[in-house]
């Protein structure tokens, strides 16, 4: 059995620094909420749909609360007062606000307990909806079974949800275990979630609740035909992180890309805004049994995979720790990394093997997500297909959990039907042929692989210990990840953060983290 | 090898055999009929007696086809001229020395991925300190002062930043080209600059994997750089173009 000889003392130091870093972050985001967290609460209370100018009703309400200067009291508080005073349901109230017939913030204030009683039935319904979806998934997996790991993960990105659904079914037919719908390229920066089925997008398809439903149905059909459960992925990321998490939890998504660090670095989203959003969204994902995928692999698209490989490790330690703070077990924390070493480097394959094996061993219970070469895919599709084969060989040898398959046409276009089919064929061939290779190999003590792994780990340790002293925000300001600098007081969505008043409550947070029982059960 | 430039044909394993490879998916299930359909399509594309060497069912009524055959067409390569950036290429040191000697000041460059485009890989490769493939980016040049605005920058914001830093050159990167979104973005930028009557205040440069110099000129830019461009290609072009512009003032 292939095992790296890791310095356990370094591993301990990494974990302990990551804990210190996470403590700092949690302390600094404590007691604050955001526009999107409040919209998530409204969605959980049953508010959905759009007004006459297509603005989602959760946005209409939160905007009105914000304009009245009452966001710090929270949507639950405001809605509770309104339900007590009017006897109308949250959705009825939202529709009336949408019709401009009602101001939601003008009702007399009642006690927290009175608000909770008035909203209990809606709160229960929201929680129940997630639990029902969750048990349906468990039943499906039990009945249908699932593919062996690494799960083969492909993307669809046509812009048209109906085309996506057809291509996803074809991919399932070709052996895909996981299908992700790539989002339209600007969606992460929209401060609302579009509504209804969509047929136009750029470089991808909008994440909407209806689109989630359409894809879930398609994959369930494909799964039944193929006798294998097929997982569905989308993005709980960007400015609407927790809202999309809750939509996914309601509609049976299985995985969510969910990483504040990615949004901060690559989308310039405000640091604390997205960390607050991430905390609630991970609490939701954990409750709904949804695997999150973190985005460390992306660092290597801008930074060098050999000299900066340790930054991926450091970030994984932090991301794992932050996910723990949101109550997620390791089994749901899909840390990301990538095969991005320059293919011209001699023995580059050995270095890839070293880093993939290291990540596997450092996070043994996490469903590690391994990303394919993208940076050095240059339009030579024939070489690209071979790079992808080597990537698949590392994936199977080091026992990765989720293998996002590379496309030979990477950097040319979003995948054609045949690109996906050839890619799946590549992975099935390599993995079937080398299934037990990792069990037969051993690393040369003090050899190239062992030394590279040790070097990565010791550099990650140094970096984490530095970060523990400075704090995560400082590291982001200094450009320590992906070579990108982000100021603490800047970024998109920073105006959407507010410090909670003592009237504030978010019972969903309590229920999902197991601190409060669901009413009546 | 003796090639008749007025009549060039693909070379498979014999001169002028015209052999090409072709692969595509048809929205038809794999069958004798769909393979015949693939052949007829190849014939309509100019292949004579194409050989269908591989067919694979992809599910959901899709089939994948691979064909080989000779094309009946040829091209006259003697009359082809491709527009390219014509300035001589200088390396990092030569470019810095050139700027120091000819301008006695730094050149200010602002760069962005505009519109919806969130892919900063190309822009970062050209602008970042570290650069790409061992070649330093513009930030590292003593001759340049740079501002990298990153992804998804509205054209209006790019122009505002260019005015704010009194930029000599604007660098736009476009990676996403689905539905010609890059054409719209790039056209919108030149139109905005023209509307403000400041188009000529800036050297306008665009880069991206689907960009070429001819397209850039057509869209009203001064230069375009495609796949395989390294930072010093852009740097030495900008340096020379700015020096030329100053001469004309």
Please explain how this structure is put together.
The complex is a heterodimer of chains A (521) and B (249). In chain A, helix 1 packs parallel to helix 18 and helix 15 packs across helix 16 (417-433). In chain A, helix 15 links the parallel strand 9 and strand 10 (402-404). In chain A, strands 7-6-5-4-3-2-10-9-8 form a 9-stranded parallel sheet. A two-stranded antiparallel sheet of chain A has the order 1-11. The model of chain A has no long low-confidence stretch (mean pLDDT 95). The N and C termini of chain A lie far apart (48 Å). Chain A has a domain at 1-29 and 338-483: D-Lysine 5,6-aminomutase alpha subunit (TIM Barrel). Chain A is α/β, with parallel strands linked by helices and 521 residues long. Chain A has 20 helices and 11 strands. In chain B, 32% of the residues lie in helices and 20% in strands. Chain B contains 7 helices and 8 strands. Chain B has helices at 32-44, 92-102, 121-127, 155-164, 181-195, 213-218, 231-248, and strands at residues 19-26, 51-59, 62-70, 107-113, 144-148, 169-173, 203-207, 223-225. Chain B has a 5-stranded parallel sheet with strand order 5-4-6-7-8, sandwiched between helices. A 3-stranded antiparallel sheet of chain B has the order 1-3-2, covered by helices on one side. In chain B, strand 7, helix 6 (213-218) and strand 8 (223-225) form a beta-alpha-beta unit. Chain B is elongated. The chains are: A alpha/beta (521), B alpha/beta (249).
Which tags fit this structure?
heterodimer, A: about 525 residues, alpha/beta, TIM Barrel, 9-stranded parallel β-sheet, about 55% helix, B: about 250 residues, 3-stranded antiparallel β-sheet, 7 helices
How would you summarize the topology of this molecule?
The complex is a heterodimer of chains A (521) and B (249).
Chain A: H1 8-29, E1 32-34, H2 35-44, H3 57-67, H4 75-86, H5 90-98, H6 112-144, E2 151-156, H7 161-173, E3 178-181, H8 209-226, E4 231-235, H9 241-251, E5 255-257, H10 260-267, H11 271-287, E6 291-293, H12 299-302, H13 309-325, E7 333-334, E8 336-338, H14 348-362, E9 369-371, H15 381-397, E10 402-404, H16 417-433, H17 437-440, H18 448-470, H19 472-478, E11 497-499, H20 507-512
Parallel strand pairs in A: 2-3, 2-10, 3-4, 4-5, 5-6, 6-7, 8-9, 9-10
Antiparallel strand pairs in A: 1-11
Helix pairs in contact in A: 1-13, 1-18, 2-3, 2-9, 3-5, 4-6, 6-9, 7-8, 8-9, 9-11, 10-11, 13-18, 14-15, 14-18, 15-16
Chain B: E1 19-26, H1 32-44, E2 51-59, E3 62-70, H2 92-102, E4 107-113, H3 121-127, E5 144-148, H4 155-164, E6 169-173, H5 181-195, E7 203-207, H6 213-218, E8 223-225, H7 231-248
Parallel strand pairs in B: 4-5, 4-6, 6-7, 7-8
Antiparallel strand pairs in B: 1-3, 2-3
Helix pairs in contact in B: 2-7
